[in-house]
Amino acid sequence: MASNVRSTLAFNSTIVEMFTRRVECGYKEETMEGNSFQQAVTASPATMTFTIVDVLSIDTAAAAVGVSDPRTLRNWATGNQNLRQRALVRLTVVFQIVQELQSVLSDLQVRQWFTTINPTLNYRSVLRVLDEDPIEMTAPQLLRYATEFAAQVQAGTAAVRAGDQTIGR
Questions:
Q1: 124 φ, ψ to 5°?
Q2: Is the pTM of this model over 0.90?
Q3: pLDDT band for position 11 (cuts 50, 70, 90)
Q4: Phi then psi dihedrals of residue 103, to 5 deg
Q5: Per DSSP, what are the bridge partners of residue 27?
Q6: What is the pLDDT of residue 159?
Q7: Helix (DSSP H) and strand (DSSP E) numbers for the chain
Q8: Calpha distance 157→155 (Å, rounded)
């Protein structure tokens, strides 16, 4: 058990170092402006991995991209492990979803979007859909759903703002 604790602490320390290095290398959230497609096309696997881990947490991010060991994400982020094509596709899809949702939701709300049982998805969570269904089949559905959800939240936010302005007059 003591070795597991040491291993976990060492891994957490490595994650902190990765994010520190990201900041030192000049990574800035502002560089990720634009829509999720543009961001996914121009982002490196390391940047996508950093973003996903930062928003979703290491365990949720690992589940979302389909890896059993969260340390794999550290290897992707540091370039110590090449991604197979299927893993890169899944990483990119999850990154695009995160970017769409992050434009209108907090990080906690994005995590909840991935983990909450959803009637639109046949009463499964997004994580479960990603785990059970082929990414080639689910990617368009999930991206469309995330985009529509973000638009609904945005429209609701705009409506609330407009209502507040009307009430204030």
A1: -125, 155
A2: no
A3: very low
A4: -70, -20
A5: none
A6: 54
A7: 9, 0
A8: 5
